[in-house]
């Protein structure tokens, strides 16, 4: 059972790496470095939403400090915030090693999985919410604007908007990353994303504008994404849930597999 859980955890991690890197690999303004130890994605923007480093070893040990320092220094020199993602128990030596190079723990989510064939998405939803795949550059920019609203009026919000504005033409009919929007009276109020990796479909970016929350839009988008995933693929579906949202996914049929801890360098840039 432990071996199977590790395999599933690696499946979730691999899907996330594809999400982080698939646009960067075909963009002149972004950069991806892949080694046996880590994957580093530089989005070309000062945004820790898109600047990611993913550790690939079973555990981050004190002997790995030099490699981690190299990655952190890379972003620090550019004055770019970044996030390092670890699929290890934050109580292990991973936590102490990452703290020793100056990174702070930002959040911990739960990696989850389900068999798409066993899921039964609820086709119902608020009648006022129109759900569809983003099919124009304008709709992709609206997707970015809805996501950016989660960050208020911060610099991060501006960078999230700019990221999707720059990537809009490449995201149209993309074979790996598909964006979905939920609209009320022509305003995009909810979002969701599917990542079609070779061995899984990942669900990301389920978000609702603050002023439209509490009306079932987020849940409706989630079930719409499940239906879209089942339409295109069989096999595993994966996601990363916040502690507040984990019960929604459990009720839909997802099971937890491991914790995912995110560390950041933003405080080092102040």
Would you state the CATH class of the largest domain?
Alpha Beta
Number of domains: 2
Report the C-alpha radius of gyration, rounded: 18 Å
Low-confidence stretches: none
For the largest beta-sheet, the strand count, sense and barrel status come to: 11 strands, mixed
Number of helical stretches of at least 4 residues:
7
Spatial shape: globular
Known CATH architecture of the largest domain = 3-Layer(aba) Sandwich
**Estimated structural class:** alpha+beta
What's the pLDDT, averaged over the residues? 92
Elements, N to C (H/E)? HEEEHEHEEHHEEEHEHE
Number of strands: 11
Q: Could you give the distance between the termini?
A: 45 Å
Spatial order of the strands forming the largest sheet: 1-2-3-4-11-5-10-9-8-7-6
CATH fold label of the largest domain: Aminopeptidase
Strand content: 25-35%
Describe it for me?
- Pfam families: Acetyltransf_1.
- Residues 127-270 form the N-acetyltransferase domain.
- It comes from Paenibacillus ehimensis.
- This is GNAT family N-acetyltransferase.
- The protein is α+β, with helices and mostly antiparallel strands.
- It folds into 2 domains: 2-113 and 259-269, Aminopeptidase (3-Layer(aba) Sandwich), CATH 3.40.630; 116-135 and 172-257, 3-Layer(aba) Sandwich (Aminopeptidase).
- It contains 7 helices and 11 strands.
- It has helices at 2-21, 65-78, 93-100, 137-148, 155-171, 217-232, 246-252; strands spanning 31-34, 38-42, 52-55, 83-86, 104-115, 130-133, 177-184, 187-197, 200-208, 236-241, 255-264.
- An 11-stranded mixed β-sheet has the order 1-2-3-4-11-5-10-9-8-7-6, with helices on both faces.
- Strand 8 and strand 9 form a beta hairpin.
- The longest helix is centred in the first third of the chain and has 20 residues, at 2-21.
- The model has no long low-confidence stretch (mean pLDDT 92).
